[in-house]
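Thread amino acids onto this structure.
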């Protein structure tokens, strides 16, 4: 028996005591994130949101097996938000359509959600009327039975059978009424229920997963009372899609107890907030760097390549990498780099090295003097720098795997590492 076959199937229940700790953690992280964002100017907030939305669009599509070009998505979002100084990559009509859906949802989170609106969003995902080479119904609820199946021909496994088409209209009317109502319930729980309920109805022939994630984000935005979206669940789901589908299937075959689903959802949101913290740190450090460097004359190529590294490009700054990114000769790259060294914008990592690499100077002081108890730790296979700033502020910043390896091998100094990821602390404390 599937969950929707039970009487009053949307009257879900859960064990509240098992969710208290994780919900408190999510609420704490939400508060910390918005507290940090309060110190950002409007332009910096806009850039942080644009970066979050870029990966939300990319990863939400990738979960469904659709790979989008990150630069196209970033360019489309930047243009629509009026953000300048973003290296432009002309987006396809499809990318523009998908981005338009996301921005419409973000900007109008407080409006009543209607059948027309949600059908329009689904149609925008499939402008040709085809998905994976097959013609599908777009812009309207499905009229066919929907089986969620995996496996090769003759060895198919049915994971879920959605409600029959003749139930969709009423199920969606009830869903929209519930979605647009006010309910005294934790916003994370309500968001998790919206996601589960929508994908269980499965109202469209395709695009249900992406729409479910958009709808759950809308409810979080309503609770935050903010059109700025700085975190998303899609990137975390994409890291472990199997777990997502496993917990979804288990819940859809269950008896209406959604404790395990809500715990997974809240825990995934918690990880998403950690990711958002990293985006904000990058934006802050980048903003501080350009404030410090604003009066220094630079070529457009130097500015563009510095921005690539400031945005977290995972590579050493070398003449070879510079030439590749700048589409210039190695001699030109060497001249660019030496000019930046002379202007105290870059410093060599290891003086006298045969093949020198360089670090951006975020702060000219001995940054390591402000930190104690410094270590590199791993969480979910990702490296973090853990430290105590001025003896009182705990720091746990995610760093590039390459930087962790280089530090452990003595190829980058502790001062350069701390300055790259933690300059915002010295400026804002």
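Threaded sequence (429 positions):
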């Amino acid at each position: 028996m599937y969950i929707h076959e039970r009487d009053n199937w949307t009257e879900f229940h859960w064990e509240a005591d098992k969710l208290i700790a994780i919900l408190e953690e999510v609420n704490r992280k939400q508060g910390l994130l918005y507290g940090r964002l309060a110190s950002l100017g409007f332009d910096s907030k806009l850039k942080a949101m644009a970066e979050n939305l870029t990966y939300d669009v990319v990863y939400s599509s990738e979960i469904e097996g659709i790979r989008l070009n990150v630069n196209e998505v970033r360019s489309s979002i930047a243009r629509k938000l009026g953000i300048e100084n973003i290296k432009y990559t002309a987006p396809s009509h499809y990318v523009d359509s998908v981005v338009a859906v996301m921005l419409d949802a973000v900007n109008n989170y407080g409006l009543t959600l209607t059948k027309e609106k949600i059908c329009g969003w689904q149609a925008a995902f499939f402008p040709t009327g085809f998905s994976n080479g097959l013609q599908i119904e777009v812009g309207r609820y499905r009229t066919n039975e929907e089986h969620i199946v995996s496996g090769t021909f003759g060895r198919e496994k049915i994971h879920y059978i959605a409600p029959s088409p003749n139930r969709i209209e009423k199920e969606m009317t009830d869903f929209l009424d519930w979605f647009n109502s006010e309910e005294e319930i934790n916003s994370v729980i309500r968001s998790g229920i919206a996601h589960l309920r929508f994908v269980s109805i499965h109202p469209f022939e395709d695009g249900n997963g992406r729409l479910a994630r958009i709808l759950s984000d809308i409810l979080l935005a309503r609770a935050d009372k903010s059109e700025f979206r700085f975190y998303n669940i899609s990137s975390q789901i994409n890291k472990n899609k199997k777990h997502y589908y496993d917990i979804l299937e288990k819940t859809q075959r269950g008896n209406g107890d959604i404790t395990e689903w809500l715990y997974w959802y809240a825990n995934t949101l918690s990880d998403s907030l950690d990711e958002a913290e990293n985006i904000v740190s990058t934006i802050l450090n980048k903003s501080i760097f350009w404030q410090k460097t604003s009066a220094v004359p630079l070529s457009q190529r130097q500015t563009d390549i510095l921005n690539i590294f400031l945005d977290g490009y995972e590579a050493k700054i070398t003449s070879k990498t510079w030439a590749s990114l700048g589409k210039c000769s190695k001699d030109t790259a060497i001249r660019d780099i030496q000019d930046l060294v002379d202007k105290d914008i870059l410093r060599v990592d290891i003086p006298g090295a045969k093949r020198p690499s360089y670090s951006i100077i975020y702060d000219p002081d001995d940054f390591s003097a402000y930190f104690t108890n410094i270590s590199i730790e791993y969480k979910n296979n990702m490296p973090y720098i853990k430290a105590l700033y001025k003896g009182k502020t705990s720091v746990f910043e995610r760093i590039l795997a390459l930087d962790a390896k280089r530090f452990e091998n003595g190829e980058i100094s502790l001062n350069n590492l701390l300055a790259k990821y933690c300059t915002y602390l010295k400026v804002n404390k």
